[in-house]
């Protein structure tokens, strides 16, 4: 029953998309919202099924796997199945509801994680914005001058090969010496800067590709209109870049979160999820389920960051018409 | 034709040639060419691939620069004419911006030149009316057929009321039926606007149906072989060119004349011979 229904909805959809405007293929119209709703529901269900599947595999392996894990030669290729190494899924979930410490005033674990995640999200967002400005700026320069592309692009690629862990403390120590008038460099700014360092890369590459994407015919059309550089940029290049920029921004958002978490760890910044990740891992021998909380938090954080950009894509839907058509 | 001598030509091409530098050496795309297009005149450029007809049009549009010679558009340099928006242009691909509606696409040149939004809206309505797309103002290009897209492109080219329209095989990608319909439309539109048209094509009937004069070109290097004046409906009031014309004897005679010019002047086939081309 479900299948025939969705098949019909699908046919209605294709009829709607090929029908000419003002045509009599009216029935395609009304089915549209229903189909979209159905598809969204299916997406969520599949996502949920994936999570359940992972939990099942975890529990089945924990039940059937050898206590000492699977060892080939000297290498352990699968983990131990003890409660210490692999807590039960329900234990991990239940732990989220319990207080962080035994102290009477302690907040529940989930609240601590959410607060820490929000703090990290804020820093990552600043890093993402800086990455956006720097990335698009570099792309503009590279698009405008061919020679800048040749000169800059290799360095931009090279920049990403520098290990983050190596220069995070350097950034922090440089930052602590920055003091301009009333402005004083804060530790979180170092973390944001490092996040932006990871975020700008996909944005620069995506924006460059996007800015270069207009067809020759469109560029000549703008020339025939005697449109200058800025007019061409605003009316043609930026709109044409949107389909390239959106995935780049999403990658950038995920990178910014990873960068922020890693930078929190390596600069020792308090308050973020990176910090409690380390802290709780240290307590894992006594409280194994607790260490998994921040890991879930970091995963959700990445999803929220990438999802926010997806929202941007919905708003800019009209600029993605060619993308949807193909 | 009895135009006043004072009227300046729409296009004046003098001794223009064009050499493209490629890795394997220089390619002479055009050898020195002279051509004048009067104001309000419809001139087609026809010839096989590589004869430089598109190149010639691009030189007039100032999309390329001639290696030698001068191109004047309404007495100005082609560059000045481009900056002053003396011409509108349409290509083989409609080249609409996919993120803009039909109205938005037609509005583009007006927006770029700072036309006030009220004046813009009425001009757009007028243009869409002219190309018969008044009901489609809010559609997006991907919702239109090829013919409709090309109409939008023509409306866009006419937005600034240019006195010269440059068209590079605008109907080349359309099917035959749509194509004939669009030709009739173009005849009507060019009569309504009184604009001169330089029309690049490689369809002989298309050139004959549309033009006052057909410029026949030949390749390697590109040059003008012959200019064939059309004599359809005597001193052709352009608006009088209708579908019936396509079936008239004089139409076929002109097709033959252009074909013979294309094939090097030697009579071919069994069409009427000895047609005067001037």
From TrEMBL, chain A:
It is a multi-pass membrane protein. The keyword Transmembrane helix applies. GO terms for cellular component: plasma membrane. InterPro entries: MetI-like, MetI-like_sf. Residues 1-36 are annotated as: Disordered. The keyword rRNA-binding does not apply. It comes from the Bacteria. One of its GO terms (biological process) is transmembrane transport. Keywords: Cell membrane, Membrane, Transmembrane, Transmembrane helix, Transport. The chain crosses the membrane at residues 41-61, 109-140, 152-171, 191-208, 295-316. It is found in: Cell membrane. Signal peptide: none annotated. Residues 9-24 have a biased composition (Low complexity). Pfam families: BPD_transp_1 (PF00528). Residues 117-313 form the ABC transmembrane type-1 domain. Belongs to the binding-protein-dependent transport system permease family. This is ABC transmembrane type-1 domain-containing protein. It comes from Agromyces bauzanensis.
Automatic annotation (TrEMBL), chain B:
SUPFAM superfamilies: P-loop containing nucleoside triphosphate hydrolases. Pfam families: ABC_tran. InterPro entries: AAA+_ATPase, ABC_transporter-like_ATP-bd, ABC_transporter-like_CS, ABC_transporter_ATP-bind, P-loop_NTPase. One of its GO terms (molecular function) is ATP hydrolysis activity. Residues 11-244 form the ABC transporter domain. Keywords: ATP-binding, Lipoprotein, Nucleotide-binding, Transport. Gene3D superfamilies: P-loop containing nucleotide triphosphate hydrolases. PANTHER family: ABC TRANSPORTER ATP-BINDING PROTEIN, TAURINE IMPORT ATP-BINDING PROTEIN-RELATED. This is Sulfonate ABC transporter ATP-binding lipoprotein. It comes from Agromyces bauzanensis.
């Amino acid at each position: 029953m479900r299948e025939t229904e969705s098949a019909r909805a699908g046919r209605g959809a294709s009829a709607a998309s090929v029908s000419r405007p003002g045509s009599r293929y009216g029935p395609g119209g009304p089915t549209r919202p229903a189909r979209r709703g159905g598809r969204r529901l299916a997406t969520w269900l599949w996502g949920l099924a994936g999570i359940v599947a992972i939990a099942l595999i975890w529990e089945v392996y924990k039940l059937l796997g050898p206590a000492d894990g699977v060892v080939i030669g000297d290498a352990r290729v699968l983990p131990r199945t003890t409660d210490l190494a692999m807590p039960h899924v329900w234990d991990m979930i239940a732990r989220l509801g319990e207080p962080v410490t035994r102290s009477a005033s302690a907040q529940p674990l989930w609240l601590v994680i959410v607060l820490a995640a929000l703090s990290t999200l804020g820093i990552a967002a600043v890093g993402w914005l800086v990455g956006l400005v720097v990335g698009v700026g570099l792309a503009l320069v590279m698009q405008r001058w061919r020679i800048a592309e040749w000169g800059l692009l290799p360095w931009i690629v090279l920049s990403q090969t520098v290990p983050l862990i190596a220069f995070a403390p350097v950034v922090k120590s440089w930052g602590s010496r920055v003091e301009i008038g009333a402005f004083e460099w804060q530790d979180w700014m170092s973390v944001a800067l490092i996040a932006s360092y990871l975020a700008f890369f996909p944005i620069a590459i995506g924006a460059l590709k996007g800015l270069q994407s207009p067809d020759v015919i469109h560029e000549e059309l703008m020339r025939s209109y005697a449109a200058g550089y800025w007019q061409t940029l605003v009316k043609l290049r930026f709109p044409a870049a949107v389909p390239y920029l959106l995935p780049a921004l999403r990658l950038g958002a995920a990178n910014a979160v990873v960068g922020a978490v890693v930078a929190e760890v390596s600069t020792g910044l308090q308050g973020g999820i990176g910090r409690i990740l380390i802290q709780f891992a240290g307590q894992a021998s006594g409280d194994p389920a607790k260490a998994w909380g921040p890991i879930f938090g970091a995963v959700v954080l990445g999803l929220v960051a990438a999802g926010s950009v997806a929202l941007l894509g919905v708003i800019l839907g009209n600029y993605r018409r060619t993308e949807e058509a193909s | 034709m009895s135009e006043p001598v004072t009227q300046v030509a729409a296009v004046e091409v003098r001794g223009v040639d064009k050499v493209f530098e490629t890795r394997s050496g220089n390619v002479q795309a055009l050898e020195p060419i002279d051509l004048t297009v009067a104001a309000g005149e419809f001139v087609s450029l026809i010839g096989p691939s590589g004869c430089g007809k598109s190149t010639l049009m691009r030189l007039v549009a100032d999309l390329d620069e001639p290696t030698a010679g001068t191109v004047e558009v309404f007495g100005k340099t082609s560059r000045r004419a481009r900056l002053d928006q003396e011409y509108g242009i349409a290509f083989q691909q409609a080249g609409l911006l996919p993120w803009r509606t039909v109205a938005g696409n037609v509005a583009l040149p007006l927006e770029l030149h700072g036309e006030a939004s009220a004046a813009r809206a009425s001009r757009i309505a007028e243009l869409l009316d002219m190309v018969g797309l008044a009901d489609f103002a809010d559609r997006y290009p991907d919702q239109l057929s090829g013919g409709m897209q090309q109409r939008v492109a023509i409306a866009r080219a006419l937005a600034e009321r240019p006195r010269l329209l440059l068209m590079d095989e605008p109907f080349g990608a359309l099917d035959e039926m749509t194509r004939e319909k669009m030709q009739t439309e173009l005849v009507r539109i060019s009569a309504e606007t009184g604009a001169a048209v330089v029309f690049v094509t490689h369809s002989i009937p298309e050139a004959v149906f549309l033009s006052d004069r057909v410029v026949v070109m030949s390749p390697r290097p590109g040059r003008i072989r012959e200019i064939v004046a059309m004599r359809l409906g005597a001193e052709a009031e352009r608006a009088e060119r209708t579908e019936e014309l396509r079936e008239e004897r004089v139409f076929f005679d002109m097709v033959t004349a252009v074909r013979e010019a294309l094939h090097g002047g030697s009579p071919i086939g069994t069409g009427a011979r000895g047609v005067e081309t001037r």
